[in-house]
């Protein structure tokens, strides 16, 4: 008779796990009730709390404002409040570029990466530096219009004002939560309950998700509370909240998974297991299909279970589409090195937000692309501040099949480096928002990349003559479907005429904040007549848009879905009624600050056209 002791051991372990789970479940309510009482006694006050406003805005992913002004820019987050406690739309606040889900419903919308963890929902970020490094005790965010976008607050171990950069940069999540719908656009002070960290910080990062908002969120200031000395935990913390255990375990799992990217995946040999269970009986393809639903950290953990699953988790077919953006804080050269052998077939790669503060080097990025770039079709590098001319040269040489390149907010790339992009003649999508691309390089790109379908040049301030650029687009980019010229300062009716004549497949056109366009020249009428496929047209802050333009849109652009005429003084309710009656698919109409469209008119239009979101902003 075989010994029963091994079985008893297994049963004992199982019994222990059941008891632990039961204890956690049973005491959760009790611990929650104690949490409010004991939260004020966890840290013994051993020094004075320091209160400070942000000294400087170090980095951000986007903003509504111009690169050459302060209105609606992230730079307004530095210093004391400008607006709070007032509510409304104010130019002195920080505003991100997008809100709602409208940008996901237009022709330029990109397909999402699969396997993105459900806990990562950030769309934009801003990083703020403070004068004094402290152990944070509270973070106050002063939101003055449509609050509720902040979904994550992080702290960094690196001091941006230190002369000696640290060997290792750590980011810790102070608070995180899924997007929530806040009732009403009124101002508020948002003070989430943050966790304690074991290092002082003067670098705070806010991440936002504006998908549930009815309009742009506006932030006025951020206040950091903290102490100079690390708080000492009181003895009463022996009564631990079960929710804290869950959160800690989740973070440990995340850390373990990403550390595995750098360590465990590099292990060549695994322990020999006698069997692989019933997985041996499943078809290879079925196992691959099942694993397709796992995130990258989950794949790393699963690879440690048995040899068969290790082989599956390392199969390049699992890495055809790979987004490392959710793990931006932990991705470095070592991560890319250990992923190389698994990414030889990769087609979509998202490295947005990664590599900053020395985490990814030019050589590390170049080595990765030399091994894994041959099949790349889509490359997302938004806010990749490690990128330089060498990186762009490597991209163009190692990625011959590249069709989509996103360099949004890569503002450290020197102007001359963009010339290399012209070598990628297969490009269909190019995003250069907030980059330093200059006119000569852009003309070369347009000349050689005739397959372009989506082009973003929003806030590209170094282009001297947009009429020349528009003329080149009209001559060379006949397949263009979406074009972003947000805040281009010098395009005129001449450039619009060339563009409309040559790019008649355009479905989306953003001419927001283009002050040199005047309706009296007939430029908007010409657009409406030449571009019947338009689905999205932004004429934001163009005060010359008039009834004639709206009526031409109603007559010629019946497929229109989104129209922004914020700020115009010349559009009447009658012309809007014609537009709404003609454009049956219209879903977004922004008439904020349109002097002839008051709240009474908006209510009437909403009642008659309930399927259209009609936005009317206000200022108090």
From TrEMBL:
<dbReference type="InterPro" id="IPR001810">
    <property type="entry name" value="F-box_dom"/>
</dbReference>
<keyword id="KW-0833">Ubl conjugation pathway</keyword>
<feature type="domain" description="F-box">
    <location>
        <begin position="276"/>
        <end position="331"/>
    </location>
</feature>
<dbReference type="InterPro" id="IPR032675">
    <property type="entry name" value="LRR_dom_sf"/>
</dbReference>
<keyword id="KW-0433">Leucine-rich repeat</keyword>
<protein>
    <submittedName>
        <fullName>FBXL4 protein</fullName>
    </submittedName>
</protein>
<dbReference type="InterPro" id="IPR036047">
    <property type="entry name" value="F-box-like_dom_sf"/>
</dbReference>
<dbReference type="Pfam" id="PF12937">
    <property type="entry name" value="F-box-like"/>
</dbReference>
<dbReference type="GO" id="GO:0031146">
    <property type="term" value="P:SCF-dependent proteasomal ubiquitin-dependent protein catabolic process"/>
</dbReference>
<dbReference type="GO" id="GO:0019005">
    <property type="term" value="C:SCF ubiquitin ligase complex"/>
</dbReference>
<dbReference type="InterPro" id="IPR057207">
    <property type="entry name" value="FBXL15_LRR"/>
</dbReference>
<dbReference type="InterPro" id="IPR006553">
    <property type="entry name" value="Leu-rich_rpt_Cys-con_subtyp"/>
</dbReference>
<dbReference type="Pfam" id="PF25372">
    <property type="entry name" value="DUF7885"/>
</dbReference>
């Amino acid at each position: 008779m075989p010994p029963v002791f091994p079985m008893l051991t297994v049963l004992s372990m199982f019994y222990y796990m059941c008891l632990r789970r039961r204890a956690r479940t049973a005491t959760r309510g009790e611990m929650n009730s104690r949490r409010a009482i004991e939260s004020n006694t966890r840290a013994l006050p051993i020094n004075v709390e320091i209160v400070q406003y942000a000294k400087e805005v170090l980095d951000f992913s986007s903003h509504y404002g111009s690169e050459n002004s302060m209105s609606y820019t992230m730079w307004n987050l530095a210093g004391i409040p400008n607006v709070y406690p007032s509510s409304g739309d104010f130019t002195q606040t920080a505003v991100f570029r997008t809100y709602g889900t409208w940008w996901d419903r237009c022709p330029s919308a990109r397909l999402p990466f699969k396997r993105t963890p459900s806990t990562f929902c950030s769309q934009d970020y801003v990083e703020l530096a403070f004068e004094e490094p402290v152990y944070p005790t509270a973070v106050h965010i002063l939101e003055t219009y449509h609050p509720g976008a902040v979904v994550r607050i992080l702290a960094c171990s690196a001091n941006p004002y230190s002369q000696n950069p640290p060997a290792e940069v750590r980011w810790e999540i102070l608070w995180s939560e899924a997007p929530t719908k806040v009732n009403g656009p009124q101002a508020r002070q948002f003070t989430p309950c943050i966790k304690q960290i074991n290092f002082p910080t003067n670098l705070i990062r806010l991440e936002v998700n504006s998908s549930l908002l009815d309009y742009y969120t506006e932030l006025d200031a951020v206040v950091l509370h903290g102490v100079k000395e690390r708080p000492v935990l009181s003895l009463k913390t022996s009564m631990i909240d079960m929710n804290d255990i869950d959160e800690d375990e989740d973070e440990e799992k995340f850390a373990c998974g990403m550390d595995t990217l750098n360590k465990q995946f590099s292990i060549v040999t695994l322990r020999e297991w006698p069997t692989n269970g019933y997985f041996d009986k499943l078809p290879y393809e079925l196992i691959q299909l099942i694993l397709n639903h796992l995130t990258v950290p989950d794949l790393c953990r699963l690879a440690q279970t048995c040899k068969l699953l290790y082989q599956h988790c390392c199969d390049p077919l699992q890495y055809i589409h790979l987004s490392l953006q959710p793990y931006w804080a932990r991705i470095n050269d070592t991560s890319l090195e250990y992923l190389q052998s698994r990414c030889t077939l990769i087609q979509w790669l998202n490295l947005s937000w990664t590599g900053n503060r020395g985490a990814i080097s030019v050589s590390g990025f170049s080595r990765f692309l030399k091994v894994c770039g041959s099949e790349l079709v889509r490359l997302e590098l938004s806010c990749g501040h490690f990128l330089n001319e060498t990186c762009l040269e490597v991209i163009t040489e190692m990625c011959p099949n590249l069709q989509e390149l996103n360099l949004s907010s890569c503002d450290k790339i020197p102007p001359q480096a963009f010339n290399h992009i012209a070598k990628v003649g297969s490009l269909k999508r190019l995003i250069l928002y907030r980059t330093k691309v200059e006119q000569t390089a852009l003309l070369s790109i347009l000349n050689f990349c005739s397959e372009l379908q989506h082009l973003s040049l929003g806030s590209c301030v170094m282009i001297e003559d947009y009429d020349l650029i528009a003329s080149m687009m009209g001559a060379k980019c006949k397949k263009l479907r979406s074009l972003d010229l947000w805040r281009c300062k010098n395009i005129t009716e001449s450039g619009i005429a060339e563009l409309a004549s040559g790019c008649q497949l355009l479905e989306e056109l953003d001419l927001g904040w283009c002050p040199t366009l005047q309706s009296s020249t007939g430029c908007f009428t010409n657009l409406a007549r030449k571009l019947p496929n338009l689905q999205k047209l932004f004429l934001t802050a163009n005060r010359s848009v008039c009834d004639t333009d709206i009526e031409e849109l109603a007559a010629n652009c019946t497929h229109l879905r989104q129209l922004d005429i914020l700020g115009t003084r010349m559009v009447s309710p009658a012309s809007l009624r014609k537009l709404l009656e003609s454009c049956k698919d219209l879903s977004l109409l922004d008439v904020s600050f349109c002097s002839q469209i008051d709240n009474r008119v908006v209510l009437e239009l909403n009642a008659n056209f309930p399927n259209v979101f009609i936005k009317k902003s206000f200022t108090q």
